Amino acid sequence: MKCKFFLFLFYILIFNSNLLGDENKKTLKIGLLAPLTGPYSEIGDSLLYSLQLALEEINDQNVVVVPRDSGFNDNEKLNSAIENLKSQEIKIIIGPVTYDEFEEVKKYNDINFISPSNIDPEFKTNIISIGVSLESQLEALIKFINKQKKTKTVIMYPNNHYMNMIEKKINSLNLKNVNTFIYTPNPEVLTGEIEILTNYSQRKNNLKLRKKIFENKKDDQSIKELERLEQLYTLGDVSFDSVIIIDFGNNLKSVLTSLVYTDVNQEKVLFTTINQWFDESIFYENTIKTIYYPSVNYNEFKIYNNKFYQKFKIYPNEIAILAYDALGLIYYAWKEKGEIKSINDFAFKNKIKGKIGTFSFKNGKVTQELDIYMTKSNKFIKF
């Protein structure tokens, strides 16, 4: 605990050292809200390290980051941290980390917040979220699927506490030629549900009936046809030609396994999912030949991770790269505008390139232009 305190104190001193310079210089003071203590302190450490990298790259002595421990979904700590930053006349803050804290920070309408959350890309009164939003991912996937000339897409997502949010976002996009399918995360129930989606029983029966036609025939053509049918598990196509699976980790792998078990033809059906942050464990899901997903720029992601590791000997939390871009975004706005008065100062006409990709700020909304990657031969390949 004592070691942790000195680490926190060290960063307070490092990030504020620029304040000792010429007081007449115009200084950009940026607050950071992060869980610097407690069970989520690993996230806070990653954010601190990431901002140190960003400050080194910016290399401007007039930029100062002031970190404060805001806990994790702890309103008392959050408010205390904000009040402390406010007392130092800080008007722009990176944070809060989670969307659940948005309601609490809205009341500080004289402070602007740049959050790494990805839940809501629309500008709030004083909050901008720059996380990789589900809207940006779905738009990138639908564009990709259309280019592959697929016209019957099923969006699959689990029945959990994110379900209503996912449905709201899907409905807001007014997608065409798209159906939705809600499944139970429990693997014991999941396969049966996907059997219904894929009409598995009927397709198995189709094969059985077809084989009976040729079983007692002795001509060469019938024998060859029966041999061909013996290699199949089902007969007939499913009612869709592409899927978008909104899930992660073992749940995603269970869905993929069930789709393969129900004999969905991977040559005819396009398998896609949402951003996996280049999770290599998906390589070991060997039932799937190729899966596609939208993502941040892989080369930039690797460069950033390697640079982070070389300096700090640990790999960053995924959210840390968003803080890196948040600082760059704030600095760009400050240099362009001279000062930051409100979140409207971030409504740039031009696109902004960051580590995670290219940002667009239009109609009061943040959109990321994402690349499409595919997994093949244990590699992530840009499509």
Explain what you see.
The protein is α/β, with parallel strands linked by helices and 383 residues long. It has 2 domains: 2-131 and 298-367, Rossmann fold; 134-198 and 238-295, Rossmann fold (3-Layer(aba) Sandwich). It contains 12 helices and 15 strands. The strands form 4 sheets. Strands 2-1-3-4-5 form a 5-stranded parallel β-sheet. A 4-stranded parallel β-sheet has the order 7-6-8-9, with helices on both faces. It has a 3-stranded antiparallel β-sheet with strand order 10-14-15. Helix 2 (41-58) packs parallel to helix 12 (320-337). The protein is elongated, with a radius of gyration of 25 Å. 36% of the residues are buried.
Describe how the helices and strands are arranged:
Layout: H1 2-16, E1 28-34, H2 41-58, E2 63-69, H3 75-87, E3 92-94, H4 102-105, E4 112-115, E5 127-129, H5 134-147, E6 153-158, H6 163-172, E7 178-183, H7 187-197, H8 200-215, H9 220-230, E8 242-245, H10 249-261, E9 270-273, E10 291-295, H11 298-312, H12 320-337, E11 352-353, E12 358-362, E13 365-369, E14 371-376, E15 379-382
Parallel strand pairs: 1-2, 1-3, 3-4, 4-5, 6-7, 6-8, 8-9
Antiparallel strand pairs: 10-14, 11-12, 12-13, 14-15
Helix pairs in contact: 2-12, 7-10, 8-9
Quick rundown:
It is built from 12 helices and 15 strands. It is of the alpha/beta class. The strands form 4 sheets. Strands 2-1-3-4-5 form a 5-stranded parallel sheet. The protein has a 4-stranded parallel sheet with strand order 7-6-8-9, with helices on both faces. It has a 3-stranded antiparallel sheet with strand order 10-14-15.
